[in-house]
Amino acid sequence: MFFRSQKIQYYQWLVIFSELGRTAAAGLLLGLVLAPLAARADGVGQRRPTEVIVVVGKRGSATTPDVSAARERLERIPGAVGVVDDSTYRDSFTQSIGDALLFTPGVFADTSAQRESRISIRGSGLNSSFERRGITVLRDGVPISRAGGLTEFQEIDPISIDYIEVYKGANGLRYGGMSLGGAVNIVSPTGRTASPGVQVRLEGGSFATTRAHGSVALANETADLYVGATGLRSEGYRDHSDVRSVYGHANLGIRLGDLGEMRFYATALSDNLELAGSLGLRDALDNPRDAARPVTIGPFFPGGPVTVLDPGPIADDWDRNLDVYRASNVTKIELDHASIEGSFWFAYRDLDHAITRFAGIIDQEEKEYGGQLRAEGDFVWADRDFAWVVGASVASSDNDARAFENDFGDRGDLRSRSDQDARNWFVYAQADAEITDSWTAIAGLQYLDTKRKNRARFQDTSGQVSESQFNPRVGLLWDFDERTQFFVNANRSFEPASMADLTAGGALDFTPLRAQDAWTFEIGSRGQRRFVAWDLAYYRSWVEDEFVDLPVPGASGFLSRTFNAGDTIHQGIEAGLSFFVDRPELDELGLGLSFRAVYTWNDFFFDSEPDGVVGTGSLSGNQLPAIPEHVLLFEARLEYQKKASVSVNVRHVPRGPYVDFANTKRIPDYTLVGISGSVDVLENLRFFVSGENLGDETFISNLTTVADQSIENANVFTPGQGRAFFGGLEWRY
Fold it and tell me: Which residue of 215, 246, 610, 662 has the fewest CB atoms within a 10 Å radius of its CB?
C-alpha cells in the first residue's frame, strides 16, 4: 500500500489536489477558453516558444550537443528528466544554480548564504549544511562533485552556462547518478554553440551589488574557443553577508577530421563569503537583516558571571573562502554506429572556513584525479532498433584537513589534522530494446565501490569505511503518439556517507556510517496536446539507513552530526504545465503570451522508529523536516516580436516545513512575487531588469534541523532576502 494509512491517504490526496488546484485551475480554465484559438503548445519539458529557434544558425560540436539535441536524447529516457535553457533565467539576477533550477519540477532550492544554495531532489540531502550530499553534479559530463561525496554548489556560475540537464534518481545512471537525488549535468557554451563574437554584461542593484561578465566565442573549420569570466561584489541583505567572487571558464575544441573532437576545459574560482549565522524564529522574522547574536549563559545569580560561548559572526569573522582550479579533457571518437568517449580531470580545492568557537576555523587543501570511458551505439536486429551504452569511471582524492581555534577571527592553536582519502569507481551498462513501434524496454546495471579513510595526525580519530553495491534499473517507454509519452521504471539507488558526514568537518571523532540505499518506483508522462504541454511523474522510494543531521551544541547551525535514521519513505508528485496562447489579435500586435506552472509534492516520513535521533515520544510516522510538503510556482510571460518581454512569477509555500524530527514546530508559509523584463535597445544591445520579493515578505529561506524544537528552542533559522531590484545591459559584437 502506497500510503501510511487509509486516513492519511484520503487526507494527502485532498491536500494535494487542493494545493495543485490553486495554481493550475486558473491556468487550465484559461486554456480551455482559449483552446479553439491555440495553434501550438510550448512542448515537452515546459520549453518556451523561443526555444524552438534558439539553435538556428549555431554550429555543432561533437562533444557538446546543443539544447535541441539534448532534449531529443532525454526524451528517450523512461523517467523524469528536465532541461533548463539559460534563456529562462537570464533576465533575472541569478546568483546560484539553485536560482536557475527553481522552475524544475521536483527540485527544491533555497538559500543559506549569497551564492550558496541547498538543493534537494526527491528529498536528497534533506538537511545537510554547507557542502551538499545526495546529487551528483557534473560539468560537461565531468564530475564537479568530489570523490569524497560532497558538492560545492558555489563552484557554479549561472552566467557561464548554456543549459542544464536534470536526471532525477537513477535516470542519471550513465553519469554515476546512483544517489536518491540523481545527477545534474551543466553544459558549457563552446565556440561552436555560443553566439560568435564578444559579449559583455554589466549588472547592479540592491545591497550595493555589482556584477560584470565578459566572454568571447570563436570558431573555424578545425578549432573553436570559448572564454568567459564573471566578477561579483555585494554587501548582502543581512549584516555580515558580504560576497566577493571571481569566476573564469574556458574550453578549446579541436576537430579530429571525420573521427570526432577533442576538447580541453579549464575553470578557476575564488569565492569569498561572509556568513551572518542563524537566528531564533521570532528574531529571524522580526529582524531579518541582523547577524546572529553572541551566545551567552548567565548570570545564574545577581551579579554572577556571564559566560560568552560564542562572540558571534562579526566578532569571530565567520566566513567561507573557497578557491578551486579544475582542468579536464573530453575526447569523442565517432564511428558508423557507435562512439567512444574518454575523459580525465584534475581539481585543486583550497577552503578557509571560519565559523563558531566550537567548530573553529576549518582549513582544507584537496587534490583530486579521475578518468572515465564510455562507449555507446545502436544496431538493427529483426527489424527492431536497439541501443546500448557501457562505461566505467574512477576518481580519487587526498584532502589535508586541519581545524584551528577561532580567536576573534584569527587562527589560534591547531586542534586537529587529518589526511582524508576518498576513492570511487563504478561500471555500468544499459540496453534499450524496441519491442514494438511504440514500446521500448530499458534495462541497466551499475556497480559502485567506494572507500573513505581518515588518518589522524595527532588525535585518536582515525577510521575508514568501504561500501559497494549493485544497482539495477528497468523501465518501459510508451510513445502513445508523436507528442505523448508514458513511462514507468524501477531502480535501486546507493549513497555512501561523505567524508564530512564521517568526521563533521574535522570537529568530531570519526563516526562510521552505513551507506544509504533505496528502491524507487516511478511512473509518469510528458507531452503536449493543443494548448498545453506537461511533465508529470509520481515516485515512491523505500529508503534504508537515511542520513539525517542534528546540529552540534554551540555550533549555531553551522555544524551538524550525521546519523543513520533507519527506514524512511520518500514519495511525491512532480508536475509541470505550460500554455502558449496563439491568437490572431496577438499576432497582429507582434505579441506572444505564455504561462507555466510547477507543483511539487514532497511526502517524506519515518517508516520505523529511527536510531540516533532523540525526541519526545515515538517518531515513527513523523514527517522528515527541512523541506516543505507543497511548493507551487507560476509564471506569466508576455513577449513582443522577440525583442522585448516581461514576466511575473510567484512562488508559494502553503505550509512551511517542520524544523524538528518530533514535528513540534513549523516555519510560517510564504508567498514571493517577482518580475523581470528585457528590451533590445539596439540590435546588439539588450537592457534587462528584475525585482525580487516585491511584497517585502519576511520568510525563512533555510534551516538546520533539530530533534525537538519544543525543548531545544534552537537558533537555526536563516531569514530570506527582502525586496530587491536589479538591472543591467548586455552587449554583443
Answer: 246
Residues of the chain falling short of pLDDT 50:
1-3, 5-11, 13, 16-17, 20, 23-59, 554-557
Residues with Cβ < 8 Å from 602, sequence gap 6 or more? 108, 123, 570, 572, 627, 628, 629, 630, 631
Residue among 105, 135, 103, 131 at smallest CA distance from 117: 131
CB-facing half-sphere around the CA of 624: CA atoms within 13 A: 29
What distance in Å separates the CA atoms of residue 699 and residue 265, rounded to the nearest whole number? 40
Global model pTM greater than 0.85: yes
3-state SS of 454-484 is EEECCCCCCEEEEEEEEEEEEEEEEEEECCE
| Domain encompassing residue 115 | 6-418+432-732
Rounded Cα distance, 367 and 345, in Å: 11
Dihedral sign for Cα 55, 61, 66, 69, please: positive
**Per-residue pLDDT at 61:** 83
Q: Which residue in this structure is represented by grid cell 573521427?
A: 259
For 34, phi and psi rounded to 5 degrees?
A: -95, 0
Which sign does the torsion angle of CA 555, 560, 565, 568 carry?
A: positive
Of 345, 342, 339, which is closest to residue 330 (Cα–Cα)? 342
Which residues sit opposite 687 in a β-bridge? 679, 729
- CA proximity to 396, closest of 425, 423, 356: 423
DSSP conformation class of 355: -
Taking the CA atoms of the chain, what radius of gyration do you get in angstroms? 25
Q: pLDDT tens digits, residue range 663-672?
A: 999 999 999 9
Domains contained in the chain, number = 1
**CA–CA distance, 733 with 726 (Å, rounded to integer):** 24
Residue 309 included in any domain: yes
List the CATH number of the domain containing 480.
Answer: 2.40.170.20
- Cell readout for 253 is 575544441
Q: How far apart are CA 598 and CA 23, in angstroms?
A: 8
438-441 own/partner pairs: CB under 8 Å, 24+ apart: 438/478, 438/479, 438/480, 439/476, 439/477, 439/478, 439/479, 440/76, 440/78, 440/476, 440/477, 440/479, 441/474, 441/475, 441/476, 441/477
Say how many C-beta atoms besides its own lie within 10 A of residue 311's C-beta: 19
User: Is 425 within a domain?
Assistant: no
On whether residue 229 sits in a domain, the answer given is yes
Show the cell assigned to 113: 548564504
End-to-end CA distance of the chain: 60
DSSP, res 654: S
